[in-house]
Structures are given as C-alpha cells and as structure tokens.
Design a protein that fits this description.
The chain is mainly α. The protein has a domain at 36-88. The chain has helices at 2-32, 37-62, 66-86, 100-130. Helix 2 runs antiparallel to helix 3. It is elongated and about 80 Å long.
C-alpha cells in the first residue's frame, strides 16, 4: 500500500506524524507543568485585597451606587479567578476538560477512512498500469 502513495506521499506522512509527535509533546508539557500553588495563593490574596479596598475608594464619589458597582467588579474578578482554576489542567475527566476520547475517536475514524479509500484507490492504480 505504501508503494501506491510513492516517496512524496511517504514524506508527507512522515511530516504529519512528526507534527503529531510535536503536538503530543506540547500537551505533555502542559499536563506535567502545574501552576505553582504560591501563584494561585498570591492571585487570590491580591484579588481579595483589591475587592476589600475598592469600596473605600469609591464611596466618596458614588455613595450608595458603589454597592452594585463593587458587586459587579467582585463577581467578574472572582469569576475570572475561578475560571483560571478550572482550566488550569485541561487533560482530565471534569466536564470542562478537553474531550480527548472524542478527539482520538474522530482521528481514528478519519485514519480508517483514509486507509479504506487508499486501499480502494490501489485497484484503480493497478487497472491503469495494465492499460
């Protein structure tokens, strides 16, 4: 079957395989390099300190309207911090993680489809050689 695709096809396949290996290496680097705990603690402390001091800086200018504004800012910043914690490790089994099983199944199906069609194409190549 490899004879059917020729040297240029084999070179293209090797390039694609090398690209897949590079992508796996990059994913392993993400999976094996967690965010340091000290970074997470520092981020949480900075956000909390900012949110505690924000009402005192706005009370003079906004009065009671400061309450909904600070609530909105707090909701936004705490949401961003929560999202950061959730997406810190994208290769797990949580609902927000990447669906790697689905990706692998789709990739396998595509490879099988290509291999089946390439095998069918072999018959066409052989019949052309006979003429």
């Amino acid at each position: 079957m490899l004879d059917a695709i020729g040297p240029s096809g084999i070179n293209a396949m090797n390039a694609l395989i090398q690209s897949m290996i590079d992508q796996v290496t990059a994913m392993e680097r993400v999976a094996n390099t967690p965010i340091p705990v000290s970074y997470s603690i520092h981020l949480k402390q900075c956000v909390t300190l900012y949110l505690f001091s924000l009402p005192f800086t706005l009370i003079g200018d906004l009065g009671w309207r400061m309450i909904p504004i600070v609530t909105l800012v707090a909701y936004t910043l705490m949401g961003i911090e929560g999202i950061a914690n959730e997406i810190e490790m994208p290769f797990g089994r949580d609902p927000s993680d990447l669906p790697l099983d689905r990706y692998c199944t789709e990739l396998r199906d595509e490879i099988e489809y290509i291999m089946e069609n390439l095998a069918e194409g072999d018959d066409d190549l052989e019949s052309e050689d006979e003429h």
